[in-house]
Design a protein that fits this description.
Length: about 450
């Protein structure tokens, strides 16, 4: 796979990232200057920024129950394939590991695709702590994925990893932690800004079995503690939003929130679930989670079957977009003061769009080349070219047509690119220029034939 077209001349021998040098590898390296420019932006640590406000709100909410979570907010985004995948038992042929989905620096280093990459070291850290009551952690960080382009997808986003563990010898502690949590959920109802959480739970273990080393009771207590913790942070965040609204606004907004638990699977948790929230007429996935597999705890240095616990991974951008009513994920990255001046530290307020600049659509139709010239082309490769050329000036890229001629066996694809800035007007001339650059790169890198 040729990647050097993203660089001014050819792929450099080394990349300087956050003060460290990494050897490149033409078979693996697919990070681009445009992606690397996001390393160290740290939106989750910027005062007034919605991601920072949300992170603090969740940290405070979870620690208000029993002050158990240690926070980690400045892990480097560069991790090894071992940390991101192997240690979590993610199989070698898992699609998430491929170069079409993950940004590799070289064969051994990549930009983390999730905050779970730091679970093991944090579990190990907990083990070293003498303070037995401090048995949980929250990790917030930027994560990177090669992905599609639209209003809810950006190649960099923020996740918060959370985890809690208990000694199996002290189930009484787990029981009392659970009842503290349940009381806290009821407390929010007692406040005057009532938000009703309607929960559709999935407690069936069919197709989502518990681990053998846990008893039924342990499974039940631990999974309830996990689910109630996530429900608490969602409920608290929306209660906080209502607190800042005027009565007139509240009447227009629903104070009922429907959420549902769905079983799923992750290689390092069992059972596993996702939580979705009903928002603007559709179910939106906010978080993946589950009970930590014994194997992970063993790798972190725990005695064979001494410990049980849970872990979750939340998408902070999505929750921030719901809470602050931010219609396009790119706004989170804007430098425009008209965005930033609307937010106060710690307050959840609705974003008022300052202006809607018109978009400009361009279609790009092309034939895939003959087999002899064919360079494998994944849809994410097209996204990457558009991102590298147009950056935040692209709103979305969609496949609108695909067909195969029956006689000559040629494939034609047509993508529609919507160029649109969040902050200013862009001229037709500017858009034409961008479109030309995108087409040039697509032709030179993948030998496609424009129609
Ligand atoms: C994970 O990343 C797992 N690491 C979560 C986990 C942690 C499971 C611990 C078990 C134990 P997933 O790929 O589903 O799972 O991402 C988690 C959340 O990140 C999603 O629910 C979603 O809210 C958010 N997310 C995922 N992709 C994007 C994206 N492209 N843009 C914005 N948010 C995203
Ligand atoms: Mg998911």
């Amino acid at each position: 796979r040729r990647v050097f077209a993203y660089y001014s001349t050819s792929l450099p021998n080394t990349l300087d990232i956050a003060g460290k040098k990494y050897d490149t590898d033409s078979n693996y390296t697919n990070v681009t200057p445009s992606i690397l420019s996001h390393v160290n932006e740290n939106l989750h640590l910027r005062k007034h920024h919605p991601i920072n406000t949300l992170r603090e709100l969740i940290e405070n909410t979870l620690n208000s129950v029993d002050n158990t979570f240690k926070t980690y907010n400045s892990f480097s985004p560069i991790v090894t394939t071992y940390q991101n995948f192997d240690v979590l038992d993610i199989p070698v042929d898992h699609p998430g590991r491929s170069k079409s989905d993950t940004y590799y620096i070289n064969k051994d280093y990549l930009l983390r695709t999730h905050t779970s990459a730091h679970e093991l070291e944090c579990f190990h850290d907990l083990l070293l702590q003498e303070n037995i009551t401090n048995r949980g952690f929250l990790i917030s960080a930027d994560v990177y994925r090669r992905d599609e382009i639209d209003r809810t997808h950006y190649p960099v986003f923020y996740q918060m990893e959370g985890a809690r563990i208990w000694d199996r010898s002290s189930l009484a502690l787990l029981k009392s932690d659970l009842s503290k949590l349940e009381n806290k959920l009821l407390d929010i109802d007692k406040g005057k800004n009532i938000i009703r959480l309607i929960v559709q739970d999935d407690v069936s273990l069919e197709g989502n079995p518990k681990q053998n080393y846990m008893t039924m009771e342990e499974y039940d207590l631990c999974s309830r503690h996990l689910k109630r913790s996530i429900e608490l942070l969602i409920k608290q965040a929306f209660a906080q939003k209502i607190k800042n609204m005027t009565t007139a606004d509240i009447n227009q907004t629903t104070t009922e929130l429907n959420v549902r638990w769905i079983k799923t699977s992750f290689p390092w948790t069992a059972p596993s679930w996702e939580i979705e929230v009903w928002w603007n007429g559709e179910w939106l996935e906010l978080c993946g989670c589950g009970l930590i597999k014994q194997d992970v705890l063993l790798k972190a240095g725990y005695r064979s079957d001494s410990t049980i616990g849970w872990a979750f991974g939340l998408g902070l951008d999505r929750i921030a977009m719901l809470l602050f009513e931010i219609p396009d994920i790119r706004l989170l990255w804007t430098k425009d003061e008209r965005f930033h001046q609307q937010f106060r530290d710690g307050a959840i307020t609705s974003f008022k769009p300052y202006s809607k600049y018109p978009g400009s659509m361009r279609d790009m139709a092309f034939w895939l080349p003959d087999e002899s010239l064919y360079v494998e082309l994944h849809e994410n490769d097209i996204m990457e070219i558009v991102r590298s050329v147009a950056g935040n000036l692209v709103e979305s890229v969609k496949l609108i047509d695909k067909y195969r001629t029956p006689d000559t066996n040629r494939t034609s694809l047509c993508y529609r690119i919507n160029y649109q800035s969040m902050d200013r007007n862009i001229t037709n001339q500017e858009v034409n220029k961008l479109q030309e650059l995108v087409q040039d790169q697509l032709m030179s890198k993948y030998n496609v034939i424009l129609r």
